[in-house]
């Protein structure tokens, strides 16, 4: 770049565009000096600096240009006139209000929150004084509708804009367009929102509904938990406004995730749940048709409401008490709905996630969910987040103990989301902030935060006494008029309504409740069913039903050929090229298939039959163990080609996303996705099976129990690499025992497949049969390339998934007196050793599906061995882990009644606190010993083996 001093000496007047360009450079310089060129950096170094992180130079350039006819360079520490020095100070003051005005805003309805003094907002901090208040200055880009104003006018407008009932944080945003947009919308109001009479009346009506339901429940069900929204009643008009505004611009679905607080109120007053149904739940009359059911403030719901733009479908997600985990579940559901609608930008489906202040700041899944928000595999075009900020957290939290930041919302700054703090006792400010938040998301497709500063009139629940731990706060709350009372008084003072009309709203709402009428004012009684998916075809089926997973062998070969076609000039890495070349031979019948060939062919057949396929995880494109290679990388230009996207013309969507390094949020996202699109195969693969530990809350509270608690079916598949290869405690076990312990009521499937044909048919079975249950696959590592773990194309085309596989060698069953039962990779260790030793009296049976436990199939196989004396369960895992504690009672229950003298024993590692040992030598020794124990052979132990 030409030296800036020379550039400024050119006989060329700066235009507005030039000034805007320089301003953007200057903002970049303030954030990261090295991001601008050396010439500009030297120039900006000369500019007078105040205490502010940002000062606006655009107007200074324009001012100099206007005064002199051309912009002249400033010397270090100099400004041409005293007025121009003060002009710069004014611009710094504007920047200060934008940066720190929120710290002076009147956010706490109780007036108790301690706000630190903000010296940057003082005139003196910038070399100004009260004597300057009547002086006219250039307003810069302060969006108050005039280019010049007195300093007093500017300060008054900025106080109203930034220090009133809304505290806006947006200057951390790097994108200048986003900042300018927010400035225009905020500063243009000057703190006056100018709502119409009808709008104000509607806000009062919704506040009346919010308060009315809580009072009614409080009187009728004294002491019952309801986690009411009292103290935060503005939440109801806030959500109502968001839905109506979204519908007005064409949104068709709003998916909501939220905690307990305010949930019942939202269900009744926004979503249209019949109050009589809610009363029945309080009285214990309403239970789910099957399963355990769940408490009323965990339940989900769906309905349709009418908006200015047409009918909108609302879906409230079910959620457990682990509050924030519902966030990524909602995001996954939204992504699935957007895919179904081909909603590329996020216009048709809006995610709304409601948080508590302490949970938002404290639970790490929020960070993971924010980090996903702009990634290719997980973006949903922005989410509106509402924090119902009680200012006290769970029960006894002091904010000083609940977080290390000024606001609970500071975590959202990691993705440069704008944050609008708003006083819940100023309903008009709440509605304006809601409109602003919605429009930002709609315009920029990014997350936005609404921080509703309110309070909790009751305790954490209605049986709690909060004054025990928050005496000062609850002394004030006892005196605090309700939000509805304050707003009604305001409208009466403005002559918009009279007292009798305000009182009649209360009476009418209560009458509707007692009459059992719906009280959501926009509810559609006969909803458009095209707005949501019909799940009835996937309900009421039995596991025992047989479903055909065969596939025409000629079409199989065609699919293999289609996947082998690469773009012209596409150059693969050498080892990958060998994998793909061999795979072509396998998928066309020239070679036995390995795991990767069979798995990818399964996906091809599923796509060919019209099912969507989505695979995500930290290394799924290649596969952690380099077996999948579903995503190929051109070594010439880095471009990516995915053969499974080219199975046939107009095929269903196939995506494979290498995820961010997250298990909890990503697995929750995929669960939400799978609960929304039934005609699909949704897969999450752990990089190592052990890593699923980090997502245990998703497994426990959604995957294992979601159907029983909420009648919410889900066909999610989890591929968890599992097997003892001497790689230490953290890379061996997917914690099979944990999944088996969670198994009951046919809630999920747990598989330990050992052949490529088995994984082919397991994946096909998961979508072909109309049962949507989670499938947990203990997937292999060394078996991906094991010389014995192969299958033929015929086994794929004509076979089926076998829950139990009998002995494959030609043994005389009458000669067998020892039966070894196992699952997974250990089978091949047993088989090779048995063959090596020529033990014709030992048969090996594989249980490929541990749950639902295939008792009938296994017992039928055992019956074919008439002279069995010993039955041994063999496993690699320690005795207190793996499948032994799950299967032992079943073996005793099923085998002993056979009427024969059969002993049942265990062969495997001793009980251990860790999943595996860390020494390859010790691992090999343990593995050899458990194989010998299983086969019943004694090996002399000498020398180093002692």
UniProtKB/TrEMBL annotation:
Its EC number is 1.2.4.2. It holds the Pfam family OxoGdeHyase_C. CDD domains: TPP_E1_OGDC_like. It is an enzyme of class 1 (oxidoreductase). SUPFAM superfamilies: Thiamin diphosphate-binding fold (THDP-binding). GO terms for molecular function: oxoglutarate dehydrogenase (succinyl-transferring) activity; thiamine pyrophosphate binding. This is 2-oxoglutarate dehydrogenase E1 component. Keywords: Oxidoreductase, Thiamine pyrophosphate. It comes from Acinetobacter populi. It comes from the Bacteria. One of its GO terms (cellular component) is cytosol. Residues 593-786 form the Transketolase-like pyrimidine-binding domain. E1 component of the 2-oxoglutarate dehydrogenase (OGDH) complex which catalyzes the decarboxylation of 2-oxoglutarate, the first step in the conversion of 2-oxoglutarate to succinyl-CoA and CO(2). GO terms for biological process: tricarboxylic acid cycle. Its cofactor is thiamine diphosphate. Belongs to the alpha-ketoglutarate dehydrogenase family.
